[in-house]
Design goal:
This protein is mostly helical. It has one domain. The chain has 6 helices and no strands. The chain is globular and about 50 Å long.
Length: 200
Amino acid sequence: MTAPSPQDSQHELPGPALLALAISLLIYLFSLLGPYSPPVLLTGIVLVCGGVIQLTCGLRSHQQGHPRAAATLLPFGLFWLSLISYEVFPELGVGRHPNAITMFSYLSLWALFAAVLFLGSFRRSLAVQTLYGAIMCSLLALSMNHLRDDQIFLLLGCLCGFVASMTAFYIAIAQSLNGYKGRSVLPLGHWYEQGDEELE
């Protein structure tokens, strides 16, 4: 197995978008945990900034000819912006909280999108597989939490979300450090060989 070449970086997500994803996910998870919930206004600002950053990086990736990154970042940017209407606006007195079935359906559809990303990530690095898999499990568990009252799925969803957030942080740092050093300092777990690039 050889270290990933510079050409492989186009198949990964840009560092700023990963950091925005990690911070947005952390804030959202903390907002679900009552005693540790940040101020509603702070949650809204972070989600707006995170969504805008991911949309911007997604558009830039599309212009640079990186369709995989664009197909991931653009929907996730919209996810954070749409989540504000469900989680932030009602707390500020604008609108009302959706019912349990609505939130279950909403989060389940995004979990399905994450599942598609996860299934399409098996020729990418192990770190990216872990990121998509953890996001998928987190969204699925959080959607199930709206149908139950025992908090089990909430804790499971938050745990998977924290794993996804830490993985996003790690990938961002690893890509930056590896690119600066010109070699693999922090491994991302690439399973494919250099010759496999012809099949991409």
